[in-house]
Amino acid sequence: MTGLLVVATVNEAFGNGGGGAAFSPSDIAGLSLWMRADDISGNDGDEISAWVSREGNSYSFEQTLTKRPLLKKGANGINSQNIVRFDGVNDLLVYTGNLLSSSEGTVLIVYRLSASPTATQELFSSADTALSTKYWTLEGYRSGATKLAIIQRSADTEDRIRGSTALSVNTAYIALFKSNGTAFSLRLNGAAETLAVESGANNGDWLAETADRDNFVIGGLKLTSESSFLKGDIAEILMYDTGLSAASISLLETYLDGRYAINP
What we know:
The protein is mainly β.
């Protein structure tokens, strides 16, 4: 591991070139967070001290010396695009504060697992560090179920909603987590998941219904202690403050598929 990286925020639109205007996720209203690993400068294997969002707010997800994930590039990335690699032991990136409190939303994450999981692994979460009973999490692997899951709790019964597709290691996925304010939905690689309610209810409770959150975390969960570390890679995160339409979701999945060659 070499170097300490600070991410440069990039704001330009992008696409496949040509004479027409390129599609950008910012073309869709409600974009509140956009993390893309290709914005991180440095060499393959460098430690990441900060990952800064590119939607214009410059949210900085940071980490101290001993818990930094790695930048992986080229053949070590996904379709030659950069990824952030988490070790599954203690790596995570933290934004201290509550950057969003919407009552509905949509999150798309490009990721892959790098080893057969034995425990729950978080992709993205927000929680109250003073208690262990207030949290919102998007899971890239649900322990015992090998599926995607959305978990929400605000000192009440935990709502635990999981998907239907068994996940594989070393496979890149586009995971979509959505609430329209009254119900959750999940998609994996462009297809809707059949949902199962493991606990609580599928009521769509999102960030606004989760009290006292004081962090957002990539690659783990930070309550009174840190846990559920991701052992794998994240290439891109898109977060909207509304439950997007089917048409908008199709545009975003097509953009991510084209960029990372998820569905060859």
